[in-house]
Amino acid sequence: MNRNLYQLLSAGFPKNPAAPCMILADRRAWTYGDIARASARMANLLVALGLKPGDRVAAQVEKTPEALVLYLAAIRAGLVFLPLNPAYQRHELEYFLEDARPGLFVCRPPQRALADELAACAGVPHVLELDDAGRGSLIAAAAAQPDAFKAVPRRSSDLAAILYTSGTTGRSKGAMLSHGNLAHNAKTLHGYWQFRPGDVLLHMLPIFHVHGLFVACHCALLNGSAMFFEPKFDAARALALLPQSTVFMGVPTYYVRLLQDPAFGRDTCRRMRLFISGSAPLLKETFDDFKIRSGHTILERYGMTEGGMFTSNPYAGERRGGTVGLPLPGTDLRIVSADGTAARPGVIGRIQVRGDNVFVGYWGMSEKTREEFTADGFFETGDMGSRDTEGYVTISGRSKDLVITGGLNVYPKEIEELIDAMPGVAESAVIGLPHPDFGEAVTAVVVRKKDGAGNATAQQPTESAIIAVLKAELANFKIPKRIHFVDDLPRNAMGKVQKNVLRNAFVSHGR
Ligand code: AMP
Question: What is the fold, at CATH topology level, of the domain defined by 5-177?
Answer without folding.
Answer: Rossmann fold (3.40.50)
